[in-house]
Give the backbone structure.
Amino acid sequence: MAKVWDDIMKRMFAANPQHFLNWLTPGAILVRELSPELKTRTLITDLMYVIIWYGQKIVLHIEFQRRGDDEMGKRLWEYNSTTSVNNDMVVMSVVIYLRKERKMVESPYIQRLPNGMAVHAFFYEAIKLWELPAEQFFRPGLEGLLPLVTLMRDGNRREIVEAMIERLAASRRFDLLAFAYAFAGLTFSKKHDHEWLTERFAMYKKEMEDSWTYQGILQEGIEQGIHRTLISFLEVRYPMLVELAQEQTSQIKDADTLRQVVNKVFSLQTAGEIEEYLLALGDDATKN
């Protein structure tokens, strides 16, 4: 599941990199993207870009985390130092936490000798979206971050969601609306909220499905495993149907058949319709 959210965040950054820079490094200019694969042993980061900030060329390194990670500081330090050595540039590392967890590793990461002396002290920026005001991403130059507002402070208020949808629809950013729908599913957990979200986004359903973001996420999910795509989709929007979907599709071995199931589920608009369809899956859909 974590890979799904990494992919979504990377795609959202790629769609509007300058908006992320306006937020994280105000005044910076994007130069080029760096390969996220670091030399030495195989290390893969989420995103790396060369930018010009305060007149100096540096590397901006970003990690997206849905859950807390006890090794976060160590991982960032390893990514940061390896990138700095490989590219002979200063590296700014930022971790963006999407969801609140009981334990979050705080900066700095410090390595000490047995006698307590610090030999490495690595500082990084940790951004906890739920601590930031939702209104922040409504500012000019940050519109590409609007899909994240439901993860921010007060972002679960319906008027905030309405304002976000209206802003994106007015600018015809249906690609971002597809992201927004996915993130909203992480915040709104009650049944009546799910129904409201589904109804609210339904009027833009065709436009979202036609967007490159929706198609890209769908195709990537199919390549990684069609079944996992179905379960991930339901975990976000209809978690109450995950167990049923696992039971009804666990024996499907034919990729084309499973792809038809996934596409059908994606086309339905309510939890009730999806539940009815899953329950109706017969022997033809579940045979090997």
